[in-house]
Every structure is written in C-alpha cells, then in structure tokens.
Design brief:
mainly alpha; about 5% strand
C-alpha cells in the first residue's frame, strides 16, 4: 500500500490513464486508496471544527451579514445595513453567507464549507498529478502531502478567503493539464474562468499562478504557436468575463445604494486592486494595522500602537524562517530539488505531459515564493497556503519519476537526495520547537539518513545476480525514506487541528506556553483591542440588542464592529473599515446618518494616558487628569460627538446615545 502512494505504473511507463477521476479502470487498492484519502481528509478537517468558534471575527461578521441580507451577500458587506464591505472581494463570503442562508448562521455553517474545500482541493490535485504522470499512486501521494501540510490544516478550517482562492487555483492547474493533453482551448478557458473567480476571492494574489500556467501552455501544448497564442487569448477573455462582471456591477450600481468598497480611496473596485490590497503590498504602502491617533505631545513606547504582526524581513529566507517555516517550508527544499531533477532527467518531446506538469508546479513555487519573499508589507505566514498544492504536486511528480528509475543508479541517487533533504530540513524545523516531541526529529533524521545511505549503497555497480535483490531493497528504502520525510510536516499538521484558532494571524503547531513578558503582554492587549474584546460588555450588548435603527452602533475599525455584531446580532457601522483607514464616513456624512435617525450609539474606548508617554518639551500635551484619551482612528468624528452628546461610560467604553437631542 505504501508503495502505491509513490507509483503504480511499471518502470518506464509514461502513458496517461483514461481519466483518474473514473475509478472503474483502477485497481482495487487504488480505489480504496482514493476513498481513504478523501474520507481521511474530510474526517480530520471536519473533526471538532467549531473549536475555532467564529475564527476571524472580521470575516465572520461578514458571513453573518450575508446570511441576513442578499445585498450584503452579493457585495461582501461587513454588516446587513450595507455600510462598507470587507477588505477583499466577496467570493469567499458567497460560500459562507449562502451556507448561513441555507442552514442558519453558526460556526459550523461558516467553517464546514471551508473544510469541504480541502477535500475538493485534494481530489483535484490527485486528478492533476495522476493524469500528468499516468500514475494514480503519484496522485495519491500528492493529495496526501497536501492534506498533511500544516498551513492547509490551519486555513481550510478557518474563515479567511484563502481556502476558496487556493481551491480555484488548484482547479486552474487541473484545467491546464487537461488542456495540455490535446491542446484544448475549452479546458484552458475553464482554467482562466477559475482564476477569474480566484481574483474575486483575494484580488491579485489569486492571479499569481497565472504566469506559470500561461508559460507552460505556451511551451508544451501540442499545437502550433499560433493556436497556442489564440487559446491563451481565449483563456484571458474567460478570466476577464468571470471576474469583470463583478467589477462592472460595482461601477454601474449607484454608489448611494451599495456599500462602500473597502480598501479604496474613491469607492471603486480597481482602486482597491492597485492600492491597499494590490501593489501596495509589494511597495510597502499598506497602512499600518493599528492606525490610532494620539494627542499632540504623546508617543507610545514599546511599539504598542504599531502593527503587532511579525511579517519577517523581506528576502529569500523569509519562507524558511519564523512562522512561515512551520507552516510551509517542511517539504519546500525537496520540492525545489525535485523540480530540478525532473527537468534534468526527463528526456521526452516538447509536448511531454510530465514536463508540462513539472513546469506548472515548479514555476508556481518559484513565482509565488519569490513574490512573498520580496513583499514589503503585511506578508502573513498563512499566505503560504497558496504554495501548498505546488509543493505537494511537485514532490509527488519528482518521487514518481525517480521511482520509475529505481533500477538505475541515477534514480536511487536522486531518491536519496530527495529523502535526505526532506529529513534534514524537517529536523531543522522541529529543532526550533525542541521541547515538543524531542524524539521525533531524531527519529526522522535517523530513518531518512539510513534510507538515503542505503539507496546510495545500492547505486554501486554490482553483479547481475544481485541486481534484482538490490532493486527490491531500493524500493523498500524509498518507501521508508518518504514516510520518514513526511513525518515532521504530518505531525505538525496533526498537532494543529485540535487547537482553537482565532484572530487575524493564526499559527500552526501544538499549543504554546503563555509568554508573561512585557512584549507579549502588549501584543495580547493590542490583539484584544483589535478584535473588539474590550467592547464586549454585557450591558452594552444588551443596549444594542434593544436598538431599532438601521445600525445599532458605530465604532472605529471593522474587526471591532464585527465582534459587536456577532455578540448582539445587530448591524454595526465600521467607521473607516478594516484598519480605520478608509475615508468613510466623512463628518458631514455621519451627521446626515444621524439626522435620518439611522444610528443609535457611537462607541469609543477611553484610556488614561500614562505620564511616561508624554514627550518632554513638546507643547499641547494634555495630562492624564485633563481628559481621557479616546482610542480612535477618526478623531474628527469623535470630537464632534463628544462636543454635542453626553456620554455614558460602561467600563472604559464611552457610549453616546445619538437619538437624544444634541447639545
């Protein structure tokens, strides 16, 4: 059975099966293997999925809004009153919001579709690799590696847009492989359409696999250059149609009757594409995660008001260090080695499908890996989910090609190199968390080392009588070595699943001890503010539940508004959107909303400013005794409200009742 995960075709065979998704021609062990793979993925990813609760409050609030309002579902609004959207296009919200419409909004209705996307992605990757290599066993290995990747185990059980985007990218790769078989313009157009919807999930990130697919088709497709170019133009048209309809919808729909498009400065979709969530990520123009105004003359120490996400320094080592190293790097070195080995060893015509799939996955890894390495702002570790299908597919193709050459010295040496790179890097990554299962890294390193050494020894020329025995020994060593090399990634994925993951930057692996240091305390306090924890007072939530206006309350920052929505099940206006950076509402717009009696409360957190925050010698600084500091990204609105309405304080939250007559 283990050998089946590497390959099932006889040595030297490169013929493709009729259709890897059609199991009628598969051997019983292959059918059982696929069933177990998909059932195992579903069981693992669905098991106790509600341990994550609302996961990321920001997107959970939008999913709740979509379950209550068709317009909110269409535009991806953060609230059913349709004031502002989330900071991404709505494709992922369509899935979660529609699930809430059908089954009622809950943690399960929101997260179960995400887990089912993992099963679909595994099935698509299996079909892609199996069709390209002619081996269902190679497809099973690819699917298993994807399912056992820590970042996949994290994000396919979470509610960020990454799950649907990666599923669509994988579907595009499958469509491209189908197109490569017979130069099918139709399949290539389907791949383009899948990427169009990936764009509607997470903008430019969803298109980052496009160069790999286009270049591969241009090189490998079995037709003339003219036809290849025409097919690519057709695929581009399909991409534009499948994504452009939504862009056109936002342009034609009157802005006064739709939500503000978050992440833009002018309430247009394309401004968000080329600004906040587009090229700004690479150029470092993304606004800081914590945009909070301090009074003149004060400065917060210790980076309290700075972005608390550790994105790491740009450079080629970013994917292998820090949290990214734990999430994706386990098999990345081996996958890169496999890419080079297959290109070097494969001797076949230009139209060879194995080389085509190798180019797809290899260029996918290089393109996205390079992009994440140079990204100058807000590169979250979980973005590396986009690399997981490419790493899994490339590793499976590489092992399959070397397995086919297991009777040759080059095949055994190549397999030894792959196994050694898997085991050695797993040891290094596990060493970074040395207190967790310390025996595991030594077991992986020892097993992979012995298997690699054994393969190298079997590559030494010998007599004809020993060749058959050595071939069998080599096969056993490859299977043992591959299983050992997958041990670290699999163990970390298994350790990830039982943990509760919430907030904006979840992490993989086992539970970590609580850090009591001052920097960790500041991190937790900032996280608590950003996720709205400080606002969730029972008295305040009850007041909001009794409101009858279009929005029960208005508050700075989308994550705080979403947390209040989920607690009160009432629409909350997010002033400034996700990072309190969107220019909406202006003070005149806010005043008009109040005049139309559409808003009940304005909420703002208050904190005394420590004397140590005062900058010596700077005029204009108030003292902690003068007036509490209002933590807001829109001081103009906060000042106007404070000047015209009395405040009721619930804890450190100032609550202004905007239905009363102003001063």
């Amino acid at each position: 059975m283990a050998a089946t995960l590497i390959a099932t075709a006889p040595t030297g065979s490169v013929a493709s099966p009729a259709d890897p998704t059609d199991q009628s021609s598969a051997r019983p062990v292959e059918r059982v293997g696929l069933i177990l793979l998909l059932l195992g993925t579903a069981t693992a990813y669905l098991w106790n999925i509600t341990v994550n609760g609302m996961a990321n409050n920001f997107y959970a609030g939008a999913a709740w809004a979509g379950s209550r309002s068709w317009k909110a579902l269409l535009f991806g609004s953060l609230d059913p009153g349709n004031f502002i959207t989330v900071d991404k296009p709505p494709a992922s919200q369509w899935v979660m919001g529609l699930s809430g419409q059908l089954f009622g909004f809950s943690s399960a209705s929101m997260l179960v579709p995400q887990a089912l996307m993992a099963v679909a992605a595994v099935a698509l990757l299996y079909a892609t690799v199996a069709r390209a290599t002619g081996s269902r066993g190679a497809g099973l290995l690819a699917g298993a590696v994807l399912a056992a990747t820590p970042v996949a185990a994290l994000m396919f059980r979470f509610n960020n847009p990454d799950a649907v985007m990666v599923l669509l990218m994988t579907a595009a790769a499958y469509g491209t492989v189908r197109a490569l078989e017979r130069a099918s313009g139709r399949w290539l157009m389907l791949a383009g359409a899948a990427l169009g919807f990936a764009f509607l999930a997470k903008l430019l990130e969803g298109l980052m696999v496009l160069p790999a697919l286009a270049v591969t088709y241009l090189i490998v497709a079995p037709t003339s250059v003219r036809n290849r170019l025409l097919h690519l133009i057709g695929a581009a048209a399909a991409l534009i149609v499948s994504s452009g309809w939504y862009v056109l919808l936002t342009a034609l729909w009157p802005a006064s009757s739709r939500p503000y498009l978050a992440g833009s400065d002018d309430n247009t979709f394309m401004d968000a594409v080329f600004g906040f969530n587009g090229f700004g990520r690479f150029l470092g123009h993304t606004p800081p995660a914590e945009r909070i105004a301090l009074p003149e003359g004060y400065q917060a120490p210790n980076g309290l008001l700075q972005s608390f996400n550790d994105f790491g320094s740009p450079g080629p080592g970013r994917l292998f260090a820090g949290e990214s190293g734990f999430e994706i790097s386990w098999l990345l070195p081996a996958a890169l080695v496999a890419f080079l080995l297959v290109l070097a060893l494969r001797r076949a015509p230009r139209t060879d499908l194995v080389r085509g799939a190798t180019l797809i996955f290899g260029l996918w890894m290089i393109t996205l890996g390079g992009a994440f390495s140079v990204m100058a702002a807000a590169e979250h570790a979980y973005y590396t989910l986009t690399l997981a299908p490419a790493v899994a597919g490339m590793l499976a193709i590489g092992m399959h090609q070397l397995w086919q050459r297991r009777d040759q010295a080059v095949g055994r040496i190549g397999a030894a190199v792959l196994i050694l790179s898997m085991g050695a890097w797993s040891f290094i990554v596990l060493q970074r968390n040395s207190d967790w299962l310390p025996w595991l890294r030594w077991t992986i390193a020892a097993t992979a080392g012995v298997a690699a050494l054994g393969l190298l020894l079997t590559a030494i020329p010998t007599t004809a009588g020993l060749r058959v025995a050595r071939s069998r020994v080599a096969a056993v060593l490859v299977v043992i070595g591959v299983l050992a090399g997958l041990g670290g990634s699999t163990a970390y994925a298994v350790a990830t699943i039982p943990q509760a993951h919430t907030g904006r930057s979840p992490v993989v692996g086992p539970a970590k001890p609580v850090d009591t240091g001052i920097e960790a305390l500041i991190h937790r306090q900032t996280q608590n503010f950003a996720d709205g924890g400080a606002f969730l007072k029972p008295q305040l939530v009850a007041m909001m539940m009794n409101s009858t206006t279009r929005w029960s309350a208005a508050v700075d920052r989308g994550s705080i508004a979403a947390a209040l929505e989920l607690a009160s099940r009432t629409p909350v206006m997010a002033i400034g959107g996700f990072a309190a950076d969107d220019p909406v509402p202006t003070l005149p717009q806010f005043q008009q909303i109040i005049a139309r009696h559409e808003l009940t409360y304005y909420l703002v957190q208050e904190m005394p400013l420590p004397a140590s925050w005062r900058v010596p010698g700077q005029p204009g600084a108030t003292t902690p005794k003068d007036k509490p500091w209002q933590v807001t990204g829109s001081p103009e609105i906060a000042t106007w409200v404070a000047d015209h309405y009395p405040a009721t304080r619930i804890g450190n939250i100032a609550v202004y009742d905007l239905t009363e007559h102003p001063n």
